[in-house]
Amino acid sequence: MWNGELLDLDAYLDRVAFTFDPAADRETTLRGLHRAHLAAISFENADVRDGVPLRLDVESLQDKMVARRRGGYCFEQNLLFAAVLDRLGHEVTALGARVLLGRTGAIPRTHAVLRVDRRWVVDVGFGGGGLLEPLPLVDGATARQGDWTFRLDHADDTWTLRSFQNGEWFPLYDFAETPWTPADYAIVSHYLCTHPASPFLGRLLVQRTDERARYALTDLELTETRPDGAVVKRSLTPEELDAVLREDFGLDLPVRPTATG
Q1: Secretion signal: which residues (predicted)?
Q2: What is the spatial distance between Cα 24 and Cα 258, in angstroms, rounded to a whole number?
């Protein structure tokens, strides 16, 4: 299903600067790969913003994020990572999540999450301050990852991922264990790329999370958010944007198309 055999594993490992330790167990390697991917490949929606069609096959994902050293959004990132894990012999199940970020009500499942080896929640594509490492799929599982702390709760067949921010448990997203397929992801991705209500249309979104903070760029506004609730905002000039993309997010994005005629 994940076409890991089509992946150039050596090129991917070079892209994320990860070297296998032959003495490490599978869990340690999985955690290391998860961190390496997040550190190297930022969340970004430039193609969606610009109306460039997204292709989610392994060859296209590898060309974009590995060969051209771009980033991607959740479906791109987690489908590439699924191919990597499949190539390494892991059992990967696609799941669909509802992005909460403190919201309630009727929210569609528009986020990709992976279940790995039936015991790990894996997600390298959540721009909203998500996991740095896999989290055990266990009710009440809690983990400190850098300055962030995450907890996974289970009720009524639904798992909810929370992070401890500003003194309280903040819901990031929830998901069920009903398996999805790459085709399901493609349908939802098409919706997010084309529907007028999509949050990814009409603006540039670039994000990454490290040990101490989440960094989010929305057009020309750069925001740094820390787990204790501290927020620092900075308005960029158009001249500063390219430098911030390169130095803070590791990206050299294509020039945005302009209308002609």
Answers
A1: none
A2: 50
CATH of domain 4-249: 3.30.2140.20
Strands 92-99 and 109-116: antiparallel
Does the structure show a pLDDT above 90 at 257?
no
Catalytic-role residue among 47, 86, 123, 174: 123
DSSP state of 256: P
Query: Which one from 74, 86, 90, 174 is the annotated catalytic residue?
Result: 74
User: Quick check: 160 and 113 in contact, CB under 8 A?
Assistant: no
CB 61 within 8 A of CB 115: no
| Backbone region of residue 47 per phi and psi (left: phi > 0; alpha: psi in -120 to 50; beta: other values) | alpha
Q: Is 113 helix (H, G, I), strand (E, B) or coil?
A: strand
